[in-house]
Design goal:
256 residues; alpha/beta; three-stranded antiparallel sheet; binds pimelic acid; binds magnesium ion
Length: 256
């Protein structure tokens, strides 16, 4: 069996993340041994050229994956065009509701949303108790060990007339891993990169629903919230997010 390595990067400014530094960039790849160098260089470039600033803390690590890598079909994609942030956020709330997140829970999360900005990982918000349930130490959860082989992604992108953008690829990889799990009801995300204003709502039910404006240009506040069913086991869910290796693989015979 071919061996694969999980390669991951995180970069921050004014100290490391755990010492309260500002998050600059993070990234995940899975590579065969002969491609590890290329992955490390790609992640290094991502961190050194980031629009959130020049990092003064950077960590890149790799480790052997010793369990089977599960394959998942990418979520179907749709793009919703909006003109204003208000329209975008209203659409996000409606898509969350259609995905099965109760209205009261959506309102509660939006009221608290400024507390969810500035984390490097994701916030877990339970739809049963209407509150944040990832760790009290405020660490948030980092989804890891996932990738989409370049050629298959390029085929998918060309077929869907989507740009072959690394950003879209990385976001769809994460959204697919997260939303194909039964504990996830839906995800809400927009970037913390000041120049990037498109975000999305994703769920099993609606797929990956891009929304073209969820914040103003120049705004460095991003968020990633997983609305989850807290009746299910939280620790095995977090274990899945952090540890289960996933490859996204699009089958061109399945036209969505
Ligand atoms: C990010 O930049 O961290 C998230 C980007 C989410 C949207 C990507 C897209 O579909 O355009
Ligand atoms: Mg990020
Ligand atoms: Mg790669
Ligand atoms: Mg970012």
């Amino acid at each position: 069996m071919e061996k694969f390595y999980s390669v991951r990067m995180r970069a921050s400014k004014e100290r490391a993340h755990e010492q309260g530094g500002k998050h600059i960039s993070g990234g995940e790849q899975i590579a065969a041994y002969e491609n590890v160098r290329e992955s490390i260089i790609a992640l290094l470039d991502k961190a050194l050229t980031h629009t959130r600033g020049k990092p003064d803390f950077l960590q890149i690590q790799f480790d052997l994956i010793d369990e089977p890598i599960r394959k998942l079909e990418p979520l179907p994609l749709a793009t919703n065009k909006v003109e204003t942030v208000e329209e975008g956020r209203l659409m996000a709330r409606n898509l969350l509701e259609k995905s099965g997140v109760p209205r009261a829970c959506i309102e509660k999360a939006f009221l608290q949303i400024t507390e969810f900005f500035g984390h490097r990982g994701a916030i877990l918000f339970d739809i049963q108790s209407n509150q944040r349930v990832d760790h009290p130490n405020e660490k948030s959860v980092r989804v890891s060990r996932m990738d989409w082989p370049t050629d298959n992604f390029a085929q998918w992108a060309d077929h869907h007339a989507v740009p072959r953008s690394k950003r879209i690829k990385e976001a769809l990889v994460l959204a697919t891993k997260v939303n194909r799990n039964r504990t996830t009801v839906a995800e809400l995300c927009w970037s913390d990169d000041p120049e990037y204003i498109t975000g999305y709502v994703a769920s099993k039910k609606l797929g990956y629903q891009r929304i073209t404006k969820l914040k103003e240009v120049g705004d460095e506040h991003g968020c990633r919230i997983f609305f989850i069913d807290g009746k299910r086991d939280l620790s095995s869910y977090i274990e899945y997010l952090e540890k289960q290796p996933i490859f996204i693989e699009w089958d061109p015979r399945l036209i969505d």
